[in-house]
Structures are given as C-alpha cells and as structure tokens.
Amino acid sequence: MKPSVWRQVVLFVSVAAVSQLCCIAAADEATEKLVEIDLETWQEAQAEGRKLLLLLYKTDGCDLCAQAVEEVNMILGQPEIPYGVELGKSEDPALLSKLGFKSVPTLVFLRDKSYVTYDGVELGKSEDPALLSKLGFKSVPTLVFLRDKSYVTYDGEIEVESMLHWIPLAAEVTVRDLGDKSFEHLTQASTGATTGDWLVAFSGPDCRDVTSMLDSVGVSFKGKVNVALVNMPRSPELVQRFQIKHCPHLIYFRRGKMYRYDLPTLDTASLRSFLDGFYKNSKAENVPIPKSQFDYITEGVADFLKKQLRGDNRNVAIAAVCAVAVSFLVVIILCCRSVVEPPSKKKGE
C-alpha cells in the first residue's frame, strides 16, 4: 500500500474516533439532564412501552417542587437506576390533567404501558443506630414506610422499579382486628369457605408487638393472604377455642386446616417463608367448631358442679345431683308408660 493511502486511512480512522468520542460525550451529557416531557411525549412513551420515571411539578407557587427537582436530579447517573429507565420532569398542565393529579410534586413511574404513582410521601434517610435498634432491624439497607401511625418494611430488591411498585400497595394498613363476635363471620375458618386464607396473631398488651411484621407480610401477600390481630384479653372465647397458651401466637388458617407458627425465629423474612410453603412442615390441625350458647351453659353447669364436689358442700351437691337424676329418671319412666300402655276398652264392648 502506498504511503499516501496509509495517510488517508489513518486520517479517516482518526476522524471516525473523534466523532465517536463526541457522540459518546453528547450522549452522556444528555443522560445527565432530566428530559422535558409533555402530554404528546408521554403518550409516545406509553405507546412504545418505554420506562419513564417522571416528576410532575410547577415552577410558580410551589416551594416543595423546587426541592423535588433537586432530589430527582441527584439520582441521575446513579448505579441503582435500572438500565433503560429514563428520568424526566414535566410542568405541562395538560399532562397533569390527563393523569388526574390535583397536587404537585408527584412522582410517576411508567412501565409496561401502565403507571404507578408516588404521591404525597416525604423522603428521608437515617443511619441512627438507636432508631435501627428501636425498629428491630439487624441488616441494612432497609426501606420503611411510615403511615397511619404504623410502619411497614420493604423486603424486596433495592431497585427503583420494585420499590415504586411496592409503595402504592403499602399505602394502606392491611392488618384487621378480630374478636369473639367477628372472627368466624369474617374468616369462616372452620368451614374453609370464600374469604380466603388468614394469618392471625393472638397478642396482648404484655406481648411483643407484631403489628408492623403482620402489616409487612400483608403487603407482600396482598390479595392472597388476609392478616389479622386478636386482642387476647378482649377475646377469651377465641383464646379458649384455639388453646392459646403464650403470646404472640400465630396461626395460619388455610382451607379448613390450621397451622401453628412454631419456628424459633419470629421476623418478617421467616414469616414470609412460612406462608410461602414452610407451613407444610407444621402439623395440620382441624379447625375447632365455635361453641354454641348451649355448650357454654352446659360447661358452666359442669364447672359449677365440679367446684361444689371439691368444696365443703360436697355432700349437699351429691344429694342434689342424685335428686335431679332420680327426678329425670321418673319423668322418663312415666313418659314411656304413657306411650306403651294400651287405651282402656269402653263398657259394653
């Protein structure tokens, strides 16, 4: 090859390399800025199935919006942002109206041609060991959502898509309160009917608080397992029915059977594993049928007689029982005679 040809090849490669570097630099610069999104751009992204993390905001009359823009700008280029997720912002009133939002700032995550919202929630972080100990967490990072004076913990992957999908699910408290009067009506535990599976914790003021743990599991199994709390001092019939000897005591009701949680460790991860299938290693017990009022009356009479027979009035109690038994026997004999005895014949026949 001639020297002039070599020079041309080298020059061409050099120009191509410089152009490529310029393109890469321009792309990097573009990715370091929030993309401006309007209604038309949003509809295009939704139709194409793109992933877009969008901040809706206003420049006038919203001090919190400026702070939100700064917060979103801070996560640009962070490795936690999944590949293929665009970050944008919009103050287009048409888009705000289209999505039906009345307040800003609002964070919206578009994925799979649908979106979830992250609205009205303050963001915070903490490395306070006292708070970590207070909440009972042994590992970090951990995401906690405080709402309605209770909190729920996130136990999924620490990445944007999963967390933003979890937040709307965790917005509502999932734990329900059950008692003597409402338990069977809501759970239908003894019949295994239509209300689904239930994880019920029997607890009280002197027991370890498991409300947050139940709430976290309730969010993870939303639509699959109902979670509830029974206050033991206020529900003596349920305590007696299920033979609760300690607290907290957790029972999983599934298809007419009950499985007692008897693992040595009681935390969110272990409880989730139990519901995922580990409950099959526990003994499957038949759910006891709730007692009727007649059952409680007969049991009360029996307990009363037992106490009398063991007390100072033992002889009187024995005499009373014998008198009742004899009277009952006489009534039965008289009834039998009236049925067996043939009617007397009339005179003249």
**What overall geometry do the principal axes of the alpha carbons give?**
elongated
Distance between the termini: 149 Å
- Unreliable parts: 1-31
Largest sheet: 6 strands, mixed
Task: Determine the CATH superfamily of the largest domain.
Answer: Glutaredoxin
CATH class group of the largest domain: Alpha Beta
SSE order, one letter for each helix or strand = HEHEHEHEEHEEHEHEHEHEEHEHH
Helix content: 40-55%
The CATH topology of the largest domain turns out to be: Glutaredoxin
Structural class: alpha/beta
Our count of domains comes out at 3
β-strand amount? 15-25%
3D architecture notes:
The chain has 349 residues and is α/β, with parallel strands linked by helices. It folds into three domains: 91 residues, Glutaredoxin, CATH 3.40.30.10; 42 residues, no CATH class; 112 residues, Glutaredoxin (3-Layer(aba) Sandwich). It is 43% helix and 19% strand. The chain is built from twelve helices and 13 strands. The strands form three sheets. Strands 8-10-9-11-12-13 form a six-stranded mixed β-sheet. The chain has a five-stranded mixed β-sheet with strand order 1-3-2-4-5, with helices on one face. The N and C termini lie far apart (149 Å). The N terminus is likely disordered.
